[in-house]
UniProtKB/TrEMBL annotation:
Residues 133-152 are annotated as: Disordered. PROSITE patterns: VOC (PS51819). SUPFAM superfamilies: Glyoxalase/Bleomycin resistance protein/Dihydroxybiphenyl dioxygenase. Transmembrane segments: none annotated. InterPro entries: Extradiol_RC_dioxygenase, Glyas_Bleomycin-R_OHBP_Dase, Glyas_Fos-R_dOase_dom, VOC_core. It comes from Oceanobacillus limi. This is Glyoxalase family protein. It holds the Pfam family Glyoxalase. The lineage of its organism: Bacteria, Bacillati, Bacillota, Bacilli, Bacillales. Residues 5-131, 156-282 form the VOC domain. PANTHER family: RING-CLEAVING DIOXYGENASE MHQA-RELATED, RING-CLEAVING DIOXYGENASE MHQE-RELATED. Gene3D superfamilies: 2,3-Dihydroxybiphenyl 1,2-Dioxygenase, domain 1. It comes from the Bacteria.
Amino acid sequence: MQLKGIHHVSAITANAKNNYHFYTEILGMRLVKKTVNQDDTSVYHLFYADEVGNPGTDLTFFEIPNAGTTYLGISSISGTSLRVPTNQALEYWNKRLDQYNVDHDGITMEGKRQVIHFRDPEKQRLTLVSDEDNKGVAGGRPWSKSSASIEHGITGLGPSKLTVENPTPTIQVLTEVLTFKQVDRYPSSIKGQEDIMVFSTGEGGTGAEVHLEVRNDLPRERPGRGSVHHVAFRVENKDELAKWRERLQAERIPNSGLVDRFYFQSLYFREPNGILFELATDGPGFATDEEVEHLGESLALPPFFEDQRKEIEAKLKPLDTKR
């Protein structure tokens, strides 16, 4: 069994309308699915991705209207990165972020890669990372109707950054339970802190990494709007996912068991520092219940919620996503 890389990242927003505007109109990503949080159908779950919602390209958001401020800290997924094709693409994005008054740090280096760290309007911690020298997992393809440059567009998810105080148990889960190996390290931007460790799985490269940051100067994070809920890793299919469940049980790691999310099958568990991991299958995908040309334009509900459509729609604020 081998994890194939990052599958998706799910974060929290307090305002679906503003969130939709930022990720589609400014970042140029495609909304490939407008659905509901299956654990709380009174709120939206929005999926932004590449042209067709390929695995490894979707950044998702649960809308929690009363979500408070995030207080940054340890035991958190403290950074989400988005891949762009080249260093030249970062030059384009540097100007575009300025154009839209997006808070960012300009082009810098992170290890051997050029990046731009930036924040969305809710202070979601994001990074654009160049795939200039990527030799690992291939990216997706930017949406052909993107509001941003297709040539320089976002092609998927890059490394997720985890921040912990004690790295040992997290490393043990990544390397001894999952299929990650430490492949690199680079200096922290925070004075006096340890190097950030790079772990990779599958074919490796930008789309298959977890970066582990150790901080001894922060309290535990209190999540809210602009925080990340969980990171999911790619599994080939449902049969392999069942084997992962057996592996977690053998390691006596509490887990959710197999969960049918309709667009993929899932398995959830927390590593010892409390960070929520998901294993998710590559299929069946987002075109299961909508034509590719019209992904994300209307409210999509898995079959097991279809008989509740009228009640669900009555609780949701209208969100116009017709293109």
